[in-house]
């Protein structure tokens, strides 16, 4: 298979996930809380709220926004937000959710690599990328170049992402931590075939094949530096917002999962901030 085939399979999978994640029956992302409580924020945005700082009035773009829960959360903190995603079904669900909540958010369908065809270059004060996004992209350098091109001078990237150490672990082995998958970026992706997603859904997936790429922390940081950005902050966390290693994690009151027996042994996620010099 070539790269287009990999990405097409991933797009079909995310189109399949979108309606299940956006269900109004309490399953999926539990989106009813954003409709019922107009101040509710996603757990991912809430976790990083202090690190985000004051974003009121900023022009922001949320790359790989999926059904828009983080996007709406950024708007509720005062940003003027556009969400971008390659999945037509995700964009449709995000648009409907914003209508239902009454939040003013724009959504655009586009592959990240072609974001500059859909959005004006150099016009965003904030580029936001949330958890579980970079593993769907084959090249950290190509992604970083898009981020840099979207940012206005003085603008910043805010990235909260699963740690590449976590992506390298074998989640199917539940009695300890095992590094089994590539830590560094490879041209050939890992292939998965799974009827389940990472949140409870009413029905199984039908488009089950996906392809993922890991990118080391050094590769991500270097790619951003080479694209002209200055790294201002990099914090590694011992938690992640889903049960990434089933049977080995405990859910905290903050909505984050941590290792039960080996807490602190390995980083599970990180927050990075990079600025485009004025």
UniProtKB/TrEMBL annotation:
<keyword id="KW-0489">Methyltransferase</keyword>
<protein>
    <submittedName>
        <fullName>Class I SAM-dependent methyltransferase</fullName>
        <ecNumber>2.1.1.222</ecNumber>
        <ecNumber>2.1.1.64</ecNumber>
    </submittedName>
</protein>
<dbReference type="InterPro" id="IPR013217">
    <property type="entry name" value="Methyltransf_12"/>
</dbReference>
<dbReference type="Pfam" id="PF08242">
    <property type="entry name" value="Methyltransf_12"/>
</dbReference>
<dbReference type="InterPro" id="IPR029063">
    <property type="entry name" value="SAM-dependent_MTases_sf"/>
</dbReference>
<dbReference type="GO" id="GO:0061542">
    <property type="term" value="F:3-demethylubiquinol 3-O-methyltransferase activity"/>
</dbReference>
<dbReference type="GO" id="GO:0032259">
    <property type="term" value="P:methylation"/>
</dbReference>
<dbReference type="GO" id="GO:0102208">
    <property type="term" value="F:2-polyprenyl-6-hydroxyphenol methylase activity"/>
</dbReference>
<feature type="domain" description="Methyltransferase type 12">
    <location>
        <begin position="62"/>
        <end position="157"/>
    </location>
</feature>
<keyword id="KW-0808">Transferase</keyword>
